Each structure stands twice: as C-alpha cells, then as structure tokens.
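Researcher: Please translate sequence to structure tokens.
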Amino acid sequence: MKGIITLMFCAVLLLSNFGYSKSDPEWWQSMSLYQIYPRSFKDSDGDGIGDLKGIMSKLEHLTESNVDAFWLSPIYPSPMVDFGYDISDFVNIDTTYGTMEDFEALTKATHDASMKIIMDFVPNHSSDQHEWFEKSLQSIEPYTNYYVWHEGKVLPNGTVTVPNNWVSVFGGSAWTWREERQAYYLHQFAYQQPDLNYENENVVNAMKDVMRFWLDKGVDGFRVDAIPHLCEDVRFLDEPLTGNPNPDDYGYTHKIYTKDQLRTYEMVKGWREVLNEYSDQKVLMMEAYANMTMTMKYYVYGAHFPFNFAFITDTDRDSKATDFKRLIDRWMVNMPVLRATANWVAGNHDNSRLVTRYGRQRAEAVTMITLLLPGVGVTYNGEEIGMEDTWISWEDTKDPQGCNAGKDGYEKASRDPVRTPFQWDDTTSAGFSTNSTTWLPVNKNYVTLNLAAQKKQDSSYYALYKAVAALRKWPAVKSGALTTRLLDDDVLAFTRKIDGEQSVYVVVNFANKEKTVDLSVLVDTSNELSVYYATTNAHHLIGNVIKDVRNLKIPASGAVIYISAM
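Model: Translation complete:
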C-alpha cells in the first residue's frame, strides 16, 4: 500500500491537471487584486504622508495596469502606534488621510473606472484609545466585557501575576495590568491594541454593524486582518513550550490556545451572512498565516478565500522548480469547496519585497506565475515596477515591531523597508510628495527606478507586468484548466486551456544556465506556438514562431510565455 501511495504522489507531482469552471466566474474569482498602503501611495497635500485624494489622483495607473480591484490598508482614525491597525473608531476616516467625503468620492471614482474597492477589516482588536476600551476600563456597561480581562494568577506569596504564559506577536507578555480595573487585559499584538472579546455577543453584533456601515458606503468587500488570532481558549491555560528559552519571544510557545480556535471560524460564517444581506456580490478575504488544514477551513466557513502566502513564506531565491510545483499543486488539491477560488500572493506590507527576496530575474518569473495561475493574482503596490527594500536607519524606524526589537535587532524585525513611498518619477520625493521629508525615507534608487522612466522602456519591469496582466482577460487564463509539469528538475511548465480559445503555456527555468526542454507532453507537436512575452533576459525570443516544441531553449533564470494560434 505504501508503494502505491508513493507512486500516486509522484504521478501528481510530475503532471497535475486541475479543472476550472468554464462558466463565467464572479468578478472576484479572476480579479487582479492590488494592495494599496495608503501612507505610502500618493501624498496630495504635501505633508509627507499619502492620502485618499492622492489615491484618487492615481486611479488611472491602476486601470492601465489591468487592476480589477484594490484593497486599502487601514484608513480609520488611529493613534498610529501600529500605523492604522490600532483603530480608535471603526466607522470613520483618519484626518491624516482625509474625510468621509473624500472616501465617498474615491469609492465613486473607483466604480466609475470599472474597478472595485475593498476595505481592510481589523476585528481582532481596537486601539486602547477607542471609546469602547475607555468605558470597559471603567466597567461602564455594556462595555465592561468588550475586551478580554483577567484578574491574574495569585502566587503562594500573595503576589498577583499574569494569567498564563501567552506571548504577544510583537514580543513580551500578551497581558498588561490596569490599576483601574485591577485586572490584566489581553493583547496579541502591541499593548496599545487590546483584544476584543468574541465571547460577548454585543461585540459580535457591533463588528457586524461595522461591516454594514462600510457596505452601505458602497465598498465591495473586506480583507480581514490577522484572523487566526481572533478568539482564544477561555480556559486561559498555559501553552506548551517549544524549547525556545526566551519567554518574551513569540516562538516561546506552541499556539494551541491563542490561534485557530473554532469560534474564530464561526465568526467568519457570521460575517459572510452579513455580506449575503447585500444584493451586489461582495468578497470576503482572510489574512491567515496558518497551516494548510486551518487555512482551508476558511473556505468551508464562508470566506471567499484565505490568502495563499506560500510564495512568501515557503520560497526564496534558492527555491527550485520542484518547490514551486509542489506549492501550486498543494493549494489546488487542498481547496475543499466545489468551484473554490485559488489565489497567489507574492508580496505585502509585512514582508520583504519581491525583488529583494528573489533577485530581479527570479522576481520577474514569480510575477508571471502569480498573474497567470488560476484565480486571484495579488500585487502589493510597487511590485509592478520592481521596487526594492529601502534601508532604514534606527533613528528613522517607525514600525513598532522594529522598535520593540531594539537598535541591535530592529533591521531584522522592522517592516519599514517594504513600506517606503511609491516611486512615481525622478522629481522631489520620487513624485510621491512635494515635501522633501516623507514619513519614511524614499529609496535613493528612485532616480532611476520609477514608474515614469519604466513607461519609456520596452524592457522594464512595468512593461512586463502590464503585458502579462493583460493576459488575465483571456478566457484561458480567466477560467481555463490548469496543468502543471516538471520538464526536468529545474524547469517548471504550466498551461491554461479552455475549449475553443487560445491556450497559454508558461515555462520557467530555475537553473543558472540555459536549458533545452521538450514541451510536447503539453502541446500537440502539430500545433504552432508563438512567444507572447518573456523575462528581460529572454526578450530576444518575443514574437518568435515555434514550429518544433520538442527543442525549446529557455535562458538561465528565464521565463517564457507561449500562446497557441487557437
């Protein structure tokens, strides 16, 4: 039996076929989704911080880039301890970004441009400056138990200490004492971000009303932040130790009581029901860094999809063709719901930029893969022009995750390097702001690496992005079947096909030398192909007509897109 299972696995690994719906998908099922980090996208008023009017002024860039929808990192009122993820009012706009009127204008302009707008929904916690927390602190009903409070553990000598060994994601105990309540409150992130209590139905209903507020404003859905942390085991037991000797390090414990709890999934089900109250099709997306089993459960409980971070967490510049094939096949095989929608995320505001992680040539190939696999392709702002991480000094560091790590550890912990301003052109502050001082420094390479310059270059990163993104409108890419194949240990190929339409073939060489491959296992030898596009190091192949698919030369670290005549 073991031998049979192994043989079956090898067959799947070698050549995998995944059917996809031939009917027209919903708008979100094949969308090109773009993440905007508002602080760093475009500043309209010269204060060095991006804003809503700035975003509206750049909608044309998104339409030119074949973007179907964008989601906004938080724009709610906030003390900005965690740059918007510490929310002091869930139903308003921070004055840093503009007014509610500005948001309404942006929503209308987005829809007029035939795009969708998606909000960041942050349900795990609020700011400690939120009215709810201030009233909870004073035990004012009905807010007394809006947050997770605990009187602490009494030691034999009478000393009161933290309830358990739970650790904050940002380091240190997940509990902070407040004299006013004579109790500890839970915060899975910064101490200024107290966790909401989803055992309290008032909280459950209040957050559903937050969703309804923004849906009534016309938003097209939500990206839900940090969802695995939403609920905790109410027994407040110590978590098992990992062997990490540092009790202040997040890796000190196994997260069996503070992540992936069943009640979290029940909350997702309730949110989907809220979305279903609205006649227009809305989308619900989960940010879930979790194992495959726990991630896939979000499909079952009503999320349209959980984000697939495998290209961030499980690959790097040294990954092989086999690694990518395994990750692609694994997601496609494990989706548990009929007609479930896959998605592919290559970058975001929490992780090192694509070009920095992979190098320019590999990054181009990963961009191609992300845009041409089935389902949703996700782009973090700046990745379409190949922006790189920006070195940030200790003095300029803003991210609490970096600040908490101290001067010696901040460079490894800080997310600031991936959040620096978008590089529009070579003018002051890369065209992001008229102010020479911006909230985070602009990368010094903006003089040559910027959108305006790349628009003039045939071989630019943006030229590649735009050309490949245009293929997402093709029927074969929008709703065609996927087949993945290893042509040898270093070369991954996949196809997108649908009856009666042109097929798309992608071949990626992960070796540092040219490879000659045989594509006849995926293409009938009588078919004639042409090269639609290729990575920069293979541009000389663009436009070539291929009559012999059994002898294709793929440059070192190159990727080539072939299309059929029909």
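Researcher: Any highlights?
Model: Residues 1-13 have pLDDT under 50 and may be disordered.
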